[in-house]
Amino acid sequence: AQSVTQLGSHVSVSEGALVLLRCNYSSSVPPYLFWYVQYPNQGLQLLLKYTSAATLVKGINGFEAEFKKSETSFHLTKPSAHMSDAAEYFCAVSPSGGSQGNLIFGKGTKLSVKP
Amino acid sequence: GAVVSQHPSRVICKSGTSVKIECRSLDFQATTMFWYRQFPKQSLMLMATSNEGSKATYEQGVEKDKFLINHASLTLSTLTVTSAHPEDSSFYICSARGGSGTTDTQYFGPGTRLTVL
Fold first, then answer.
1. Do the chains contact at A49 and B105, CB–CB below 8 Å?
2. Residue B28, CA distances (Å) to A89, A114, B75 in order
3. SS3 for A60?
4. Smallest Cβ distance to B108: which of A32, A44, A96?
5. CA distance B68 to B51
6. What are the backbone angles phi and psi of residue B32, rounded to the nearest 5°?
7. Closest CB from B45, B106, B110 relative to A42
8. Rounded to whole angstroms, how far apart are CA atoms B92 and B7?
9. Mean pLDDT over residues B28-36, rounded?
10. pLDDT at B99 over 80
């Protein structure tokens, strides 16, 4: 069975500071990994995805994530936080080679950005 | 990028009534659509997966007779919450995937906030 653990339900950073949102996964097969962002009362927007190509994945809005198999991690980073980055972030995993590609989500991390 | 819409964005209904939520892929054909529900301050939980022209596949614990899903065309899927109760109040989000491969991105709709009085 696959699962996703996001460490820290709430992360607060100052504007301009490094953003680090942690995600660890559990999967018995090579996974596909995703990060989504959700603004209040809105659906999810894909930030980036890892599908077994390059381990360092660059996404939109300056975010990137690195797949580390040895650590079963896929942490999301951004060098300098903006106020507009304040939102809920979800890490998700999907089994590669599966016929459905269902996404299993972590519980989410709420990012707050202080001026 | 691909756009997925949901209608309505917000609905309030009385207990015992049925509510239909539409999910449309606006600029691509969605071979597969997914329905999720999200409780406050919690993650998304997959309810069911529907492929165009086929019966939906429901996740364990989701009542198929209560949550009716129809995916009659490549651009439209509907979720009907039958005989709604207050515990059905939630944020319902659909997503759509155009390709058949698992690497294809799921594009999410903006969600529908259901409140059952």
1. yes
2. 26, 39, 7
3. helix
4. A44
5. 14
6. -135, 135
7. B110
8. 11
9. 89
10. no
